[in-house]
Amino acid sequence: MTSDSSGGRDGAVGIREVAAEAGVSPGTVSNVLNRPDRVAAATRERVLQAIETLGFVRNGSASRLRAGRGRLVGLMVHDLANPFFAGLASGVEDLMSERGHGVILCSSATSSEREARNLRMLAEQGVRGVLVTPVDDRPERLAVLRERGIAAVMLDHAATRPHQCAVSVDDVTGGRLAVDHLLERGAADIAYVSGPVSLRQCADRLTGARAAVEAAGRGTVSHLVVDDLTAASGEKAGERLLAGDLPDAVFCANDLLAMGVLRVLLRQGVRVPRQVLLMGYDDIEYASAPAVPLSSVRQPTYRLGRIAAELLLDECDDPEGHAHQQIRFQPELVARESTRP
Amino acid sequence: MTSDSSGGRDGAVGIREVAAEAGVSPGTVSNVLNRPDRVAAATRERVLQAIETLGFVRNGSASRLRAGRGRLVGLMVHDLANPFFAGLASGVEDLMSERGHGVILCSSATSSEREARNLRMLAEQGVRGVLVTPVDDRPERLAVLRERGIAAVMLDHAATRPHQCAVSVDDVTGGRLAVDHLLERGAADIAYVSGPVSLRQCADRLTGARAAVEAAGRGTVSHLVVDDLTAASGEKAGERLLAGDLPDAVFCANDLLAMGVLRVLLRQGVRVPRQVLLMGYDDIEYASAPAVPLSSVRQPTYRLGRIAAELLLDECDDPEGHAHQQIRFQPELVARESTRP
DNA sequence: GTGGTGTTGTAAGACGTTTTAATCCTCCCC
DNA sequence: GGGGAGGATTAAAACGTCTTACAACACCAC
For tag attachment on chain A, is the N or C end more exposed, with fewer CB atoms within 10 Å? Predict the structure, then answer.
């Protein structure tokens, strides 16, 4: 135990020890750390040298306590196991890591209670800002954050109040693209499978789907609701579809659902796309892999995350000069086997 | 702005304001928060009431600064976009959330530099402990943490030093299971596709594969190395395989690689499994979806994460009484179409 | 009553950093 | 050589909580 490679002694080395080693005052060390330009080049070098020798690691808690702001942000998604959110998280983490920030990851599991609990935890940790894919539209859920002056950027969701950044994808258009495509491929009787409509994504895609039918002046959209957006729920939906008259086409609110539906239909000998056209949403990496590659609606997942992260840091770094932005991407149709009749 | 629903005033409400409201001293409020049993039921109730009324949110930074330990842990994985790690992270996050802890998520992107940078950041944030899937076997990479007394649990990796917890899956056995299966299905000339052998997972699975061939007294294993464990790299591997004589079977170090290989082989008209048997590893949810469902080796991903998280908290809560554990799961073969000749 | 015992509550000093206002130089110009 | 001017550095006071003594109190047995 006596020979630790680096100089880290038992008596934890702080800014004070560094100052002593470099022959300056603690204040100067702090300046080197936070405003390097305020200190002469020679002194700065000496301090950095001391930091290196002593293996000093700055205490983030103390720093945040005194300065009011830290180098931590929060990220709240619905479900990490869903590749769409994993992609988002990946984009956020990459950018934050480049900028020297840490990301506290939370999953709401689409439960408002868990969301509220996590937001509170984030507030306690004094994060600099939060990226959140909210569980529903109620803007007051972010009150805990606003009261403490914590910036929030909506992720995959439009802004819920005037002065707020948001990065989203136009899900109404996405739903319309999907159903336009299905109608064009000859479907009339279309089933839309989604999670609860309290999820904005599910609701918007439905709106788009109905708009497409209305605009075309033909076709119908029926709606099948399942508990969540997983492949397991997709299988349940598939079974319910099989129990009745099969529609011409099934449009699922995400690819996982579609993969579940596909699995069940194929297992029961239903020919896809011959008998039933099938469409997913998100265009996750695995959408092209199935027996019948899935048509889907592509979203720039990773970029969504990166851009939202950038917006958040911009807002945090300069709250006054920052212009709130609502960025909305347009989704893109990806046609594959599952809708080729 | 004048009518915030909750009582959160501009002059941030701290333990002091709560104390005033409840007619006790700040110390007592702290006791209610940290040692509820030390304070009489009536007083406790009064304090909790005040906390509620004022919408008090404890300052985690101050708390951690003074107490030395906080309610934050770190999690470092190779790649969030990989469903295997997303599953791990999901398990970790669930358990930590139940226990009221936050998780700082980091991705090393299998780069030691980025791993080191992130570990340093975690040390700065004063996390209580860290769960890490290390990029290589060098135990000294955790020195930054040890010096500051931060507990570490190895995740999907055996312990690298004596007194350490670790949760892993036996990858040598996994590799053996896979190749045993391929040999049994008649393959002799087997290609193993993996990322760099500096990744323990890749190395161990290779060891297992060779052991299987040796034990059987027949067959050969050739080794094809690609940059990382993604589907894109799988496609590159597939092209390199096509450039030479096709082996009887391809064993990939994970399912993403296998999906990439499969895509290329099918595109070039190679019959899988007729001409080439194909096997993945991890048994991610999407392994069963492809045109030719992938045989794979299953790992208890989510449980791995949960258990490691539990171990870490156990170690943090009682460093003395804690018995370090090395838990090793056994993987399980899942045979599907891709290895049915 | 008195002294002991146990329980509740309090006062005040950390924790390690940032920051403000003040001090110290050095250099330059008249 | 005196008088700034202006940059580099410092001293000391925060930041909000936890914790260590310690005081207050009630209760009980003698």
Answer: N
- Determine the Cα–Cα distance for residues A95 and A303; give it in Å rounded to an integer: 10
Q: Letter for the amino acid at B157? A: H
Nearest residue of B to residue A85 by CA position? B81
Question: DSSP letter at B3?
Answer: -
Spatial contact of B178 and B209, defined as CB atoms under 8 Å apart: yes
Q: A12–B148: do the CB atoms touch at under 8 Å?
A: yes
| pLDDT at residue B291, as a whole number | 79
Peptide bond into A273 cis (omega under 30): yes
Dihedral sign computed on CA atoms, order B213, B82, B310, A61:
positive
Beta-carbon contacts of B206 under 8 Å, excluding residues fewer than 6 positions away, are B175, B192, B194, B197, B221, B223
Check residue B66 and give left, alpha or beta (phi > 0: left; psi -120 to 50: alpha): alpha
Q: What is the pLDDT of residue A2?
A: 34
A103: nearest Cα among A322, A323, A306: A306
The sign of the dihedral angle between the CA atoms of B62, B63, B64, B68 is positive
Closest CA to A123 of A106, A98, A135: A106
Q: In chain B, whose CA is at the least distance from the CA of A290?
A: B290
> From CA A120, how far away is CA A114, in angstroms rounded?
10
Measured distance CA(A55)–CA(B70) in Å, rounded: 22
Q: Is A16 near strand C, with its CB below 7 A from some atom of it?
A: yes
Selected residues 245-264 of chain A with any CB under 8 Å from a CB in chain B: 259, 262-263
Among A288, A275, A266, smallest CA distance to A186 is for A275
**How do residues A216-225 score in pLDDT, each as one tens digit?**
999 999 999 9
pLDDT digits (tens, 9 = 90+) for B279-293: 999 999 889 888 788
Say if pTM beats, i.e. exceeds, 0.85: yes
B70 in contact with nucleic chain D (CB within 7 A): no
User: Rounded to a whole number, what is the largest CA-CA distance in chain A?
Assistant: 83
